[in-house]
Amino acid sequence: MDRAQLERALEAVFLAAGRVVTIKELLKIFPDANQKELKEALNSLKTFYENRGFVLREVAGGFRFETKEEFAPLLRRLVFGAPPKLSRAALETLAIIAYKQPITKAEIESIRGVDSSGAIKNLMEKGLVKICGRKDVPGKPLLYGTTPKFLEIFGLKDLSELPKMKEIEKMLADE
Fold it and tell me: Which domain of life is it from (predicted)?
């Protein structure tokens, strides 16, 4: 398969998948292509779509097509599955887990000052949080962390793309 065919095939895969597709999956789909060829084709597609209505973005350890933010007002008129609705308690809990993971329920509650059982359960049901082990202390409490679905919903490549605390403090100060 030549480069042009590979790029067209990648476009078809991303459109059909409708989700993040990892390099590992792409290597299975295209057994004759190596990782370098795939990355070159992906970079070429990223460049090509920079001036289109959508872009190829690297998110949650893989790639997917996303519409550009400038078209959000138009797209809000569409009726499609919205991201999960989260209560203030769930958002607070999710933020704590995202920034402090892996973290125990007691540590979350220490930061929030209230019981977080319901919020944690809700986040787990929505697939945004998972149990990622046990802390090596007496009682062996569960440790919680975010999932790839969290990265996907929030459009993050990895956790390093979370806003830094200084950025958040500056935004709050500006308001």
Answer: Bacteria
Q: Which of 43-52, 76-85, 143-152 has the lowest mean pLDDT?
A: 76-85
Instruction: Tell me, yes or no, whether 14 and 45 share the same domain.
Output: yes
Q: Report if residue 129 sits inside a domain.
A: yes
Measured in residues, the chain has a length of 175
Q: Is residue 81 part of a domain?
A: no
**Total tally of structural domains belonging to the chain:** 2
| Domain carrying residue 105 | 88-174
Structure tokens at 167: 């950025």
- CA atoms within 13 A of residue 110's CA, in its CB half-sphere: 6
Is 133 among the domain residues?
yes
- The span from the CA of 49 to the CA of 46, in Å, is 5
Cβ–Cβ under 8 Å, residues 102 and 134: no
Q: What is the C-alpha to C-alpha distance for residues 58 and 16, in angstroms, rounded to an integer?
A: 17
Phi–psi pair at 79, nearest 5 degrees? -105, 110
Let me know if residue 82 belongs to a domain.
no
**Token pair 């949650």 in the structure block, residue:** 60
User: What percentage of the chain reaches a pLDDT higher than 90?
Assistant: 69
In the β-sheet with 54-59, what is the strand arrangement from edge to edge? 21-22, 62-67, 54-59
Span 64-86, pLDDT tens digits: 999 888 887 777 767 555 666 88
